[in-house]
Amino acid sequence: MVDRLELLLQAKNLNSSQLADEIDVQRSIMSHVMNGRNKASLDFVLRILKRFNDINPDWLLFGKGSMTRENNLFSQEQSEANNSLKQENQELKQQNEQLQQTLQKLQQDKEQLQNSSPQVTPGQSEGQTENNDAKEEDTPGYGYRATNSKAIQTIVALYSDGTFREYQKS
């Protein structure tokens, strides 16, 4: 198998350290296999075949056939599917980043709204705030005066964040 590994290194224009990095094994393991100290493990062989899917497993294991797979449609389809999945994964990562940014912005907006909205103090009913009494300048002037029979008693302002403020004439 060592001779086939050397042919693989030549064909891929790599040295043994680069191949170790490519298949994610320790360089010492690669050195031991190349020097004949250890035999290649199944995991080692599978890593090579996974990384270089054009290599013929029969050639690598037994020295039979050619080094590369012959126009195998399955491996082409597999490669195309792998590329498609990689692209889809990248798109999902981008969408995730955008969603994270949107979530962070929404949390900041929520904090700002909570900090800027009037706070209810103990003893007040829900919806009442510290300044419930409407002042004369707070009431709208539409060019007419309300008569005694139709005087405004309460004005309620509803905010988009679900809170409200109640103004009562004193």
Topology diagram in text:
Blueprint (H helix, E strand, L loop, with lengths): L1 H11 L3 H7 L4 H8 L7 H10 L5 H6 L10 H44 L16 E2 L19 E5 L5 E6 L1
Parallel strand pairs: 1-3
Antiparallel strand pairs: 2-3
Descriptive report:
The protein has 170 residues and is mostly helical. The chain has 6 helices and 3 strands. Among the domains are: 2-62, lambda repressor-like DNA-binding domains (434 Repressor (Amino-terminal Domain)); 124-138 and 148-170, no CATH class. It has helices at residues 2-12, 16-22, 27-34, 42-51, 57-62, 73-116, and strands spanning 133-134, 154-158, 164-169. It has a 3-stranded mixed beta sheet, with no helix packed on it. 5% of the residues are buried.
Summarize the structure.
This protein has 170 residues and is mainly alpha-helical. The protein has six helices and three strands, in the order H-H-H-H-H-H-E-E-E.
The SSE order reads HHHHHHEEE
The percent of residues in helical segments reads 40-55%
The assembly state of the depicted protein chains is single chain
Instruction: Give me the CATH architecture of the domain at 2-62, please.
Output: Orthogonal Bundle
General form = rod-shaped
- Global mean pLDDT: 78
Main-sheet strand order equals 1-3-2
Low-confidence stretches: none
Give the strand content: 5-15%
